[in-house]
Amino acid sequence: MMVRYKWILFVIVICWQIVMFFALGPATGFDAEWVIDYVVNPQVITDKGLDGASYLSNSPNNYLLFFVELGIYKALPFVTSPEALLLVMRVISVLVVDVCAIGMYAVAKRYLNDSVANIVLLLWCILLGLSGWCLHPYSDTFCMPFTVINCAFCFWLLSQKTIDKAFLSSWKNRFLSSCLA
């Protein structure tokens, strides 16, 4: 019974994202949207008087976003304006969040149990899927797949028979006790 409800919730979240997608106005002024302007027009200057290279040097957290947007801008011939690139990036942002939700659910189900996987999906839907931030192409969104892959790798590593879990737990306890002391 729970199986059906969690996927119904996921579909509701996707429908809500579609409604927000069409209700959301133009650019919001975040750093990520300035990066869109810089990708389309490399001569643009920020409101702080920085050119693109200086801006990326001062905000290196936006390099991944810059390269993703630049790749999409160069690869898709119909993306010729900042508005078109913003629209494509919003679609990709939502897809990344939703695919990562399913990926994290699958990781939790495989390495933990169904109850934890259901809680992961529920929290992901409520905290990420229903919020409007997933529609804004921001650097955090494009780091999510790496986080999901890292979680999967860590769970896989801990499930291997060749790892001495007593060593890991003793190392963890010594590290935590030294941090808390």
Short description:
The chain is mainly α and 181 residues long.
Radius of gyration: 20 Å
Oligomeric state of the chains? Answer: single chain
Strand proportion, as a percent range, falls in under 5%
What is the number of helices?
8
Number of strands: 0
Mean pLDDT score:
79
Walkthrough of the structure:
With 181 residues, the chain is mostly helical. It contains eight helices and no strands. The longest helix has 30 residues.
Summarize the topology:
Elements: H1 2-23, H2 31-40, H3 52-58, H4 63-75, H5 82-111, H6 114-129, H7 139-159, H8 165-180
Primary descriptors:
75% helix; mainly alpha; 8 helices; 181 residues; 0% strand
